[in-house]
Amino acid sequence: MLGALALLLIAAPSAFADFFTPENKGGSRNADDIQTLFVIAMIIGGVIFAGVEGVLVYSLIRFRRRRGGPEPAQIRGNTPLEMGWTVGAAVIVAILAVITFAFLGGITTPERSLPSGATAGNALQVASIDQASVPGGHSLEIHVNGQQYLWRYDYPAVRGQQVFGYYDMYVPVGTTVTLKITSSDVAHSWWIPKLGGKADAIPGHTNSTWFRINRPGIYAGECAELCGEGHADMRARVIAVPPAQFQAWLVRQAADIKDAQAKLSLARQIRGEGNP
Ligand SMILES: [Cu+2]
Q1: I need a surface site. Which of 130, 155, 204, 243 has the fewest CB within 10 A?
Q2: 170 CA distance to ligand 1 centroid (A)?
Q3: 93-121: per-residue pLDDT in tens?
């Protein structure tokens, strides 16, 4: 049984993430900050765990009743000790709260795009870009819609032509991407571990999150809210490419969609003629 269990775990290395910590580093700053907070809390928790378990195991061995020996001392209550660890625990919680609030701003507030990122001057000259989401900077706003069982992305329009895609989200590197997340059926959760925390996708409500990827790469994730029988297949990838490549993709996608829509309406017209 143990062997089979170990084999199963080895067969699913992605379930380990980074073994002890969340997947991190090389994605986006908010994910890195979440990882740092996790490590700080884990170290404090680890020291306490080792201390408590150490004293417990030591006492079990050192002060156990020996065969034929007298009954060990029975101690009930120790006010200074109990006061001590109550105050100590409260101090640790306060320290954790202060550290968390120190990081929280950097996690929730989008950082600015890099000068090399996509701007109205280069990659986004064909699309409208949103100015409001990032203080003092610009961002690429993408609308994410969870649907049983896929993710739909709506990008800025290209010369009036809507641009959308599924499963793979293309983004330019060095550019702050702000996501507006919602759902058109049940509750889902958008989660690309290396690009930040989970964001619920709720029907009738819009949640926001952001990321900025500095190097080209592919970042995988999946729906993190059980949403029905196809939940396990509700994966997503974010593909970060250089701004010029992103612009080319955006234009091509707009043209493909325009073409497909034209063909569809033509097919409908033809059907309409044959069957009034
Ligand atoms: Cu789901």
Answers
A1: 204
A2: 21
A3: 999 999 999 998 888 888 888 877 776 65
